[in-house]
Amino acid sequence: MRNLNWTAAEKKIAREAFDRAYAAESQAIRRELNSMLNQRRKTDAEVIWSMHEYLVERRREIDRKYDYRYSVLIMVFGQLCAQGWLDLDDLAGLDEDKLHGIRRILKA
Amino acid sequence: MRNLNWTAAEKKIAREAFDRAYAAESQAIRRELNSMLNQRRKTDAEVIWSMHEYLVERRREIDRKYDYRYSVLIMVFGQLCAQGWLDLDDLAGLDEDKLHGIRRILKA
Lengths: 108, 108
Hints:
Strand content of chain A: under 5%
Distance between the termini of chain A: 16 Å
Order of helices and strands of chain A: HHHH
Structural class of chain A: mainly alpha
Oligomer: homodimer
Number of helices of chain A: 4
Largest interface: A-B, 21 and 21 residues
Largest sheet of chain A: none
Number of strands of chain A: 0
Shape of chain A: elongated
């Protein structure tokens, strides 16, 4: 998987899919923050420090997950599909080798 | 300042003032988070990571500032008054030595 060639057209598809997943996950985090912020039964201190903890975890996870090196991108897309941030349809146009690799990770 | 004696009555006043300042500051942070979360001109990613950065800074600052050891409490109260999280009125009932120490820091 590491030595696949990416055509210009595939790179464009990959970049758009990657950015779309990142935007979708960012939006989900913003919604979760909104929900945490509006919890009525917690003190202000409980709310803000639970948001702090949540964001520190998300930052760590997202920094690790969104790695746009072509050498790892099949793995990244497999994980993003498995987690629901992307559909295989978002990746239509990649060659069969790459899609096969992504599906294999998705089923693992 | 480090070897002041704290009577039971003073400890009660100190604890209540300390907790009040902490609650006020937590509330202000929650309001700021609400304002950040509702910024319309930023992307979701910009909003959530600016909140992350803000909370990491606040956590560091608050952990350092809210130190309830009697050996440093005069300094802590001086700082909380200087920053507007407490009034000297909140500390009424502490003896004159302590109030003098707090006012001295407040004016520094």
